[in-house]
Amino acid sequence: MSSTRPDRDPSRTNVAILGMGTVGAGVARLLIDHGDRTARHAGKTIWLSKAVVRDLNKPRGIDLPEGILTDSIDEVLEDPEIDVVIQLMGGLSPAREVMLRAMEAGKDIVTANKALLAEHGGELFTRARQLGRSIAFEAAVAGGVPIIANVSQCLSANQILSLEGILNGTSNFIVSQMDEKGAGYDETVKVAQDLGYAEADPAMDVDGTDAAQKLAILSHLAFGATVDWRDIPRSGIDGLDPADLRYASQLGYRIKLLAIARLVDGELELSVGPTLVRKGTPMAEVRDAYNAIRVVGDAVGPVFYHGLGAGQMPTASAVVADVIDMAVGRTPITFQTLEYFSEDRPARAVQRDVAKLRGRYYLRLHVANHPGTLAAITGVLAEHKISIASVMQHEEHEDAASAHKGTTNGDFVPLVIMTHEASEGAAAAATEAIAALESVDGTAVRMPVRG
Amino acid sequence: MSSTRPDRDPSRTNVAILGMGTVGAGVARLLIDHGDRTARHAGKTIWLSKAVVRDLNKPRGIDLPEGILTDSIDEVLEDPEIDVVIQLMGGLSPAREVMLRAMEAGKDIVTANKALLAEHGGELFTRARQLGRSIAFEAAVAGGVPIIANVSQCLSANQILSLEGILNGTSNFIVSQMDEKGAGYDETVKVAQDLGYAEADPAMDVDGTDAAQKLAILSHLAFGATVDWRDIPRSGIDGLDPADLRYASQLGYRIKLLAIARLVDGELELSVGPTLVRKGTPMAEVRDAYNAIRVVGDAVGPVFYHGLGAGQMPTASAVVADVIDMAVGRTPITFQTLEYFSEDRPARAVQRDVAKLRGRYYLRLHVANHPGTLAAITGVLAEHKISIASVMQHEEHEDAASAHKGTTNGDFVPLVIMTHEASEGAAAAATEAIAALESVDGTAVRMPVRG
To answer: Given a cut of 80, is residue B185 above it in pLDDT?
Structure first.
């Protein structure tokens, strides 16, 4: 499509992008280069009027038509002809204030800022409703995988029973690489950084924060729950030991950073952490920076989604789909009828006490190689009413030793135990008691097991 | 929710079901037992007013409130309070006439009748537009997997580049069972029939017709193409030889009934047939009666969907999602802005000549075990400019022999050839020429290879 500005058309939707980073440039490219496509799906022209940046002189890898680029947010907020603001600023502030101002100025919002929604979703959505505005946020979770629309519209005939997924591509890239190459955590993070899959400071990705924020958003949509992401028990893949990937593999599993939400007795079990997933299942085979989500509905059964969770064009695909839905009028309908992030309605599900979560567990210990050790450990498990599914004791080898440098000597060997189903509370208490045994050296590694 | 009829509410949507078979009973169950759920998602009550059946006395496994069941279609068509007709009658006639009459009576349509859309989609959709009515048909393709909404809405920022899938659950069940158990085709069909995965006459499922009809519908949506399903080159899994599953497995592949649509140089390649899919890819691991679809968009990259393609509640899930979208007002918007099944607009992509399709091929021949045979065969391939990727010659064994009863003797052995990329035209001509060689016995088996 030509980038010549068409005559003013009342049925045209004018949009502005706030923040022209990687995703912003991708969105601009789709809107400018593929206007015919968006017009076909929206039934009207979607016109990029403004793109707001901090530094007008920074190269962005895209040629914008004259007059679009500006460093003034006010130019957008004060332009009554701009209908939709595409909010691609990161961080919480001033992103929150700008979003509120934009809505007060009569603009609908499309955003990819998941941290902002996880933190201030209640306030922003309540304010949007008061003002008769809408917020769309497909790009905030799982990038190109349209999980927001699928959970809130396509599966709307279902009570969602569970939702579990690989929601952080950086972590999955790192874990997959470690698994495939047998490499250590630190060196793999460097590879991920070199390839652009991990940021200079990947903390939020690898420590489970990012996945927990996404899980909180999905829990609103799927379960009508009001969840503070900080209340989701979470651990990350930071410091994952290659030995655990190897033992898991020998047992028939891969380790994935899994975010899980599951209805149990009307309460919502939530967790984020490295989890053993059985090989051969679709979830275990999700590699590289891909995301995947398995949703189980009471009518539809399991539906599995798999795609790119990040990156310029996959994320832009989600943003522009939202812009089209906004322009065509679907988003306002959806936004008004769904009750997500609604501060004034009671939550339909409350979060289950973490100690009550139930599952099977993988335990890796470093134990004294002498008689009575296994008896002491299995004794503790029995005390906590945890039964053992399998035990694998290996001879000491290099990796396991190097992972415990300074705490080990030749008399200690790795011991891997798979338990039958137990409560998180019992498993945590038993693990703590085991780690305190004289015959156990170093911290015990414990991960849940799925499938 | 109570099934007591609420006071007349102008914001209520009244629906009627035509056809109370398995899916109809499932839809009624969701609407009656889960009215709170549908009301929450639609922002209004969705009320089942009538259910039309041929035989009022047939047991249906569901207790309908008094006054709902009727054997009169006119009672529905003449009731001005019924807004949406859920068309679950099978076959083409009178389903077509009833749908036209219902739209003329001012009712919107939700249907699962894929054959009707594949056959009369152009007429029905054009008429709906003339009358200002809408047709929703999520359940017509891939059952519970919401592929219609995903292709037409969620991925709307993309030019879809390709779409391939396992769209027929019956075929996939049969092929998976044959693969896992090493069983023959005929006995596996009987197992599928006993388990309810195949109808008494499974012809439309196993011969590729059903998948071709679904692919035609998806091609409208994804590519703006006007496709007559009869023009899609297709073959089925009927008569699939277990030997081919075994050889494919040895080569690292599984055989799946794959429906493929792919843009090549602006033209649309379409095909349905048994295809070798590389093991370890998500598509190869789709088992039992599951459906799966892999969509590649130019922005989003590959997105993979996997779920139950048939069955009472998965299909009902899709139907009720459509009813909610209709009630809430999303479907009318989508229907008016998208141009699918539009008789008066030019197709955006035309179907590519089948002879121009390109791909790699698997050939299985039964050849004379004497010098010169391989030279003759490879000579024919060379004449057609087809180069060979690998050759596998096995000693005669029981299965292969039994598959060629009456045409073989001890001097003939199976020969499997994998080619490099070639055109369908060249591959077909070469295969015909090879089958005519004196040293080749019986019909040559040829299948495309993916991944």
So the answer is: yes
Q: How many domains does chain A have?
A: 3
Map tokens 């995947």 to a residue.
Answer: A292
pLDDT for res A406: 39
What tens digit of pLDDT does each residue of A407-433 get? 445 688 999 999 999 999 999 999 999
Q: Are A64 and A33 in contact (CB under 8 A)?
A: no
With 50 as the cut, is the pLDDT of residue B402 above it? Answer: no
> Which tokens in the block code for residue B448?
């495309």
**Nearest C-alpha in B relative to A325:** B153
Both A127 and A177 in one domain: the answer is no
Give the pLDDT confidence of A189-246 residue by residue, as tens digits. 999 999 989 999 999 999 999 999 999 999 989 998 888 999 999 999 998 999 999 9
Same domain for A300 and A180, yes or no, is yes
Closest CA to B283 of B188, B139, B204, B175: B175
**Cβ proximity of B160 and B223 under 8 Å:** yes
Last residue of a domain, one of A319, A352, A385: A352
A320 in contact with chain B, both atoms CB, cutoff 8 A: yes
- A 331-390 near B (Cβ less than 8 A): 333-334, 336-339
Residue A146 lies in a domain: no
Both A188 and A247 in one domain: the answer is yes
Q: Which of A337, A342, A345 to mutate to test the interface with B (most CBs of B within 10 A)?
A: A337
Q: By the CB < 8 Å criterion, does B280 face chain A?
A: yes
**Is A157 within a domain?**
no
Catalytic residue among A50, A214, A385, A405: A214
Among A34, A41, A151, A320, the strongest candidate for a mutation testing the B interface, having the largest count of B CBs within 10 A, is A41
In a domain, A78, yes or no: yes
Asked if the Cβ–Cβ distance from B157 to A30 is below 8 Å, we say: yes
Do both B51 and B180 map to the same domain?
Answer: no
- CATH code of B12's domain: 3.40.50.720
pLDDT of residue B207: 97
Distance from CA of A338 to the nearest CA of B (A): 6
Q: Do A158 and B337 touch (CB under 8 A)?
A: no
Residue A379 predicted with pLDDT over 70:
yes
CATH label of the domain that carries residue B301: 3.30.360.10
pLDDT tens-digit map of B48-63: 999 999 999 888 888 8
Q: Is A319 marked within a binding site?
A: no
Radius of gyration of chain B (CA): 25
> Cβ(B275)–Cβ(B447) under 8 Å?
yes
Interface of A with B in 210-239 (CB under 8 A): none
Chain B contact present for A252, CB below 8 A: no
Backbone phi and psi for residue B219, each to the nearest 5 degrees, phi listed first: -70, -35
As for the ipTM of the complex, it is 0.93
**Binding site listing of B:** 18-25, 114, 199
Alpha helices in B43-136 (DSSP H): 73-77, 95-104, 114-131
Domain boundary residue, one of A248, A277, A308: A308
- Does the distance separating the beta carbons of A303 and B307 come in below 8 Å? yes
Nearest residue on chain B to A312, judged by CA atoms? B299
Q: Which residue range is the domain that position B115 belongs to?
A: 1-136+311-347
Inter-CA distances, B60 with A271, B33, B53, B144, Å: 41, 16, 10, 22
Q: How far is CA B416 from CA B301, B393, B403, in A?
A: 34, 6, 15
Q: What is the pLDDT of residues B413-423, one digit of tens each?
A: 999 999 999 99
What is the model's pLDDT at position B4?
37
Phi, psi of B412 (to 5 degrees): -105, 140
Q: Are residues A42 and A128 in the same domain?
A: yes
With cut-offs at 50, 70 and 90, classify the pLDDT of residue B11.
Answer: confident
Is residue B141 situated within a structural domain?
A: no
